[in-house]
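To whoever is on call:

I kicked off a structure prediction for a single chain this morning and the downstream step that reads the tokens threw a length-mismatch warning. I double-checked the sequence; it's 212 residues and nothing unusual in it as far as I can see. Pasting both halves so you can look.
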Amino acid sequence: LKKVIKYFVEIGEQRDIIVDSIQDWRDKDDLHRLSGAENAYYQSLPEPYNCKNGDFDTVEELLLVRGITPELFYGKKSKNQEEGEERVTVGLKDIFTVFSSATQVDINAASQEVLMALLGIPSELAKRVIEARGEKDFASVAELQLVVPEIAPYLLDSKGFLVVKLNMPYYTVTSWAKMTTGESKRGLECVLKIGNTEENGYKVLMWKDILY
């Protein structure tokens, strides 16, 4: 958790507040960690509410946790002055999920955003990893280094959490459409659980409309 938050927040104190507060939000007691928050903090807010002291039901619930801002959660949009292109910075919503408790990440399935946050690699290198595995899945982390040698320095502290063929049954499907006139776009995102135990071979766990 601290490794991921470090990707988003460089300042040590703010990072510690977020990490400790996330853990306080989901633990079962009312004792706050050194930089965390429990009911006493949340009840002191202008619009008070209770600390959940339980597992997250949705990723959006992170917005209730001390230290997490909308910009940190959704990412930040910026415009390249030279190219005139709009760029979107990765947000926590692109990294976390409530549908899996796995502590490892499959390099053949991880999104670009997850690769960037966990390994601390630039976007272009993450894209190279995805392009390479699109041609052929990596058989091992060692093969990843052979195919994309520039990634080697970033893998030094990745032992234990970076694996291949984790075989997780959860998949996110995103689709969007744009009007033929104007700039309006609309999309949808759903999370599916694929497996033989599910009716029709799959189960829709989450579905939401997206307005761009």
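Update from on-call: the warning came from a stale cache, not from the record. Cleared it. Sanity check on the structure: The CA atoms of residues 8 and 72 lie 7 Å apart.
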